[in-house]
Each structure stands twice: as structure tokens, then as C-alpha cells.
Amino acid sequence: MIPKITLETVSREDIERINLWLEDGEISDSWYGLDGDGNAVHIGYSPSHLMSDADLPTLEGIQNSSRRIFSLYSNDQGHIGEGQLVIEWALQEAQLFILIGRKDLWHHHYGTSALISLLDEAFRNLQLHRVWVDVPDYNVHALTMFNHIGFVLEGHMRSTHKKNQSWYDSSAMGLLQDEYPRRRARVMES
Amino acid sequence: MPVITINGPIGAGNIEVGQLISERLQIDYVDRMVFAEAAKLAGAPVGAMIAKEQKVVSFRDKLGRFLQDVLERSAASGISGEAYFGRGMEMLPAETYEELARDPSSPNQRLNDTGFIEATTSVVKRLAESGNVVIIGRGSNMILQNVPGVVHIGLVAPPDVRSATVLAREHFTQPEADSYVKELEEARVTFYRKFFKVTPSDPNLYHMILNMGVLTHQNAADMICHTVGDI
User: Fold this and answer.
1) Tens digits of per-residue pLDDT, B65-96?
2) B positions 105-134 inside 8 Å of A (CB)
3) Total H helices, total E strands in chain B
């Protein structure tokens, strides 16, 4: 049974949890590693800076029509992670980011369900034409998940991601609006 | 710095063989990313680029199916003379009307086609200049036809093999998969004829053509890597 995940507005408590999750080496290592100062890299904003510096803009100031940030909530587990859609409106497409911070829930379909919720938002509500991801090769779980949902490998490029002073290859994978219903149905059936 | 193009009908194994070659030779693999990059240059959604490759047949078929429905409904309702345009009319996309109404040689259409092929050509040539890449389809073998050192591979496979590949990937029934494979192959032929004035199955366009009905992906990748090494 696939868990139900809803997309919620990000609260300050959610950011605190994101910050805590990213302090776990296993989680930050599967995500984007550490920056030069030893802080876990996050996409779009820095949770640790946002929590510690009152002068920085609030998350409402970081979000806009081209960057949608959602907290991922499960009906049985509460807050489990964060999803983002970085939208290029002129091309009707978005780059998708997803972080499941509750590592005790990894491999229990929470990521898949969260991904479906984000894709529903992108294709059904926002009527985008394409959603794509750029996944470093070291994140095997993410590659498997996107492949399982039906993302198409659009390209595999060498040395595109730098993590902890090393370069890694990555896979660009995409899904089109008209491909999504068939593949969503296949996943839900399986 | 090998540059390889792989072309073949959907489900022939282009993706699988291309990825194996990319892994073995440690080179980039570029598939639909060609259109994703070209879309940025043309300032159009990826779908507009893909439609250039696939739309001719699908629109024609949609129209054919629509007219068939109209005639069947007319017959069923017992109306003689005029066709019955009932429910289903809205299923024919508005752009189909525009397509039908538009003179295909109008400046607007020419500009669209020109923008499409210029953007695609630019991306494919840039990839080839960078080297170390295997490019899947998108007319790459024609765009790079006269570029020295580029190896062009053609794949063929019987319809049942192609349908099986598509069936594993999509939520299709067997007849839907058969129809999808057939439609996309017709579209590919139309795309090559329209933009490059050739038939994609012409063996003169390739260094080597492999029958994926009798070869495994591994076999094919072995043979291609060996050939690339020799050339």
C-alpha cells in the first residue's frame, strides 16, 4: 500500500527539521554533500543560515512563482521531507528536487508517493509540459525511484556534480505531461 | 574522442545499447536532451520540438479517427445526408484545425520549421565538437553525416520485439503498444523525409546496421565499441 503524501506550506518548524536532518552525514551525503565551510548543501536556501540569521529573508521571500517549495507530509508520519519545483515558465517546464529527511522511511514508498504528489502538482495543477531532474550517479536510490516512476533518461553527462571536492557524473531524466498518466497508472497498479 | 550516432525505430534498443556504449567508452550519453537544449535556443517547450518529430502522423490519425467516429455515429443515428457532429468534437485539438487551415508553406510554418532544425542542428554540432558522446536519434546521423570521424549506427528490429520493449515501459495493452510502435515509426519516416529528404532505413546513411531481433544489447554494444576502436 502506497502511503499518502500531501504538499503543505513550509513552516519554521519544518525548516528546523530539515536543518536537523541535513546534519546527519548519511542524509547530506546522499543529497549534495557539504560546502567549503562544512555545512550541508541545500537547494534554493540554506536552512542553517535561515534559522540562525534573523536578517535573512523569510522563506516567503525566497519562494516565488518560479520556485515552489513544499513540505512533504504523510498522513501517518507527519513531516517527512521537502520538495521543490523550479519553474521555467517560458518553456513550461520545471526542475524537481526531493529530499526525504526521515531516513527510517527510506525504501518504504514514501519517496515514490511524494514524487507522485509533486508530479500531480506540476502536471495537473500547474499544467507544466515537462518535469526533469539531474541526479548524481552516487544517489542510486533516487535514480532507481525516478526510473521506477517512468522518467526517461535524456542524457548522462560526465563530471557535472561536485561533492566534497570530487566530481561525479549525473543523469538528466525527464517526464512529459502526456507520458505521465500512463506511467502513473502503471506505478499505482504495481 | 569518439562521436557515435544511433538511430532506429522506437523499441529497437537504441536507449539500452547507447547506455552500454556510454558506460564502456566512458563517454556522454545524449538522448532527448538534444531537444531539451534545442528548446532553450528556440524559446519553445520541449513538446513543440518533439511534435516536429512526431506530430504529422498523430494529427492525421486523430483526424482520421474523428471522421470515422462521425460517420459511424451518423450511421448509428440513422441520419442520412449530413454527418452527425455530436460528443467527441471537442476531442479534436484546436491546433489540428489550425494545422489544417494553415498553408504549410506559410512564412509562419517555415519559420517554425527553420527554428526547429536550426536549434537542433546547433545542439547536435556543439555536442559533436565537444566529442566523447553517443547521440540517440533526432536526425543526428544526418546533421553529422559529413563530419569526419563520426560513426553512424543503425538499429532494426521486428515489430514484436519493438512492441515488447514499449510494453515493458508504458501502461499499454498489446494492441495499443503495436499501434504506438507503428505510428511512431511512420512519424520517424515522415520526419526524415521532411527535414532531410531521405528514408531513415537507407543503409547508405550508416557505417553499420544491426538487427536487434537476433542480437542482445550486449552483443550490439560489443560490436559497436569494436568498430569505433577500429575507425
Assistant:
1) 555 555 555 555 554 444 444 444 444 444 44
2) 132
3) 9, 5
Q: What are phi and psi of B229, to 5 degrees?
A: -60, -40
**pLDDT tens for residues B109-167?**
443 788 889 999 999 999 999 999 999 999 999 999 999 999 999 999 999 999 999 88
A13-35 pLDDT tens trace:
899 999 999 999 898 888 888 88
pTM for the whole thing? 0.79
- Strands B150-156, B3-7: pairing kind: parallel
Contact between A92 and A17 (Cβ < 8 Å): no
CB contact under 8 A, A182 and B171: yes
ipTM: 0.81
Instruction: Give yes or no for a contact between B144 and B128, defined as CB atoms under 8 angstroms apart.
Output: yes
Contact A158/B170, CB-based, under 8 Å? Answer: no
Give the gap in angstroms from C-alpha B76 to the nearest C-alpha of chain A. Answer: 32
Give residues 15 to 74 of A whose Cβ lies within 8 Å of B: none
Identify all chain B residues contacting A182, using CB atoms and an 8 Å cutoff. 170-172
CA distance A94 to A67: 9
Listed by number, the residues of chain A in 125-164 with a beta carbon closer than 8 Å to a beta carbon of chain B are 129-130, 132, 150, 152-158
Contacts of A185 in chain B (CB under 8 A): 171
Task: Give whole-number Cα distances, A39 to A10, A15, A20, A30, A35, in Å.
Answer: 21, 15, 12, 14, 5
